[in-house]
Amino acid sequence: MVVIDKTELTGQSDQDLISRAVKSDFRAFEILVNRYSQPLWLYVFQVLQNREDANDTMQQILIQVYRSLASLKDSSRFRAWLFTIARNKCQDQFRQKASIPFSEIEARHRPEDEAGDIAFPLQLVRDPAPLADEIIERQETRQLLEEAIATLPEQSRQVVLLRYTTDLSFAEIGKVLNLKENTVKTLFQRSKSQLRFYIRQHL
Asked: Which of 18, 48, 95, 101 could form a disulfide with 53 if both were Cys (CB 3.0 to 4.6 A apart)?
């Protein structure tokens, strides 16, 4: 029997890791999960806005993934499948607390995003050691963005959240939300226009 160490497993594709994980190779499962842990955590935390709830939900997600991985028929859809589980677990948390908080979203620049966007102003927060008056201004911007996102319809909020907190493509977001890719793109572009208008009206 050939033993593959963890270093070699790291370079394997999702499909290869899934194939090994369903055969009880926990090292492969661990690497697979770690590969997506950062965007997954960011998504869950941004949705729930509570670290304790996010930690609990992450544990539930990982348990569900581990138990259900063998039932994933198309391993190429793993990312969308993973975030679908995450979204469902977050909704379970919402139902338990009967409230849906949405807060700031850290923007990521993407080549396919519209050039010259207002861009989510939270990009500005990345600057190191801002001046005191800049900090105040950015806190106000975060609050304004939160208010703007809250005005979006639920479906649009989910599209915006998934787009800016994960590495999912429009097609994958469509799979998570059970929407056509073109519908996701339309909702995203419409949401950017709505957020841009809201922010300009309230600056």
From this structure: 48
Q: What digits encode the pLDDT tens for the residues 7-47?
A: 667 778 889 999 999 988 889 999 998 899 888 988 888 78
Provide DSSP, the chain.
-PPPPHHHHHTS-HHHHHHHHTTT-HHHHHHHHHHHHHHHHHHHHHHH--HHHHHHHHHHHHHHHHHHGGG-S-GGGHHHHHHHHHHHHHHHHHHHHT------------TTSPTT----GGGGGGSSS--HHHHHHHHHHHHHHHHHHHTS-HHHHHHHHHHHHS---HHHHHHHHT--HHHHHHHHHHHHHHHHHHHHHH-
CATH number given to 6-97:
1.10.1740.10
pLDDT tens, residue by residue, 159-190: 988 887 787 899 999 999 999 999 999 999 99
Name the CATH topology of 121-202: Arc Repressor Mutant, subunit A (1.10.10)
